[in-house]
Specification:
By secondary structure, the chain is mostly helical. 73% of the residues lie in helices and 0% in strands. Helix 1 runs antiparallel to helix 2.
Length: 60
């Protein structure tokens, strides 16, 4: 009987989910300041990308 491996490990899944939440929070808070929507999206995507290496080192 063959056991299949998960697509993502639990560690990777937790890091990506927390990074998505951080990106959504930063993007949402930026959007409430009245800046153009594109700037809020860029802020959220930047926060998502920047938080991944930090979270990877913090969550073990």
């Amino acid at each position: 009987m063959e056991t299949s491996q998960p697509f993502l490990s639990l560690h990777t899944t937790v890091i990506l989910l927390v990074a998505v939440v951080i990106g959504l929070v930063f993007g949402g808070l930026t959007a409430t300041t009245g800046v153009p929507l594109a700037s809020a999206v860029i802020a959220g995507m930047s926060a998502f990308g920047i938080s991944i290496p930090v979270l990877r080192s913090l969550i073990r």
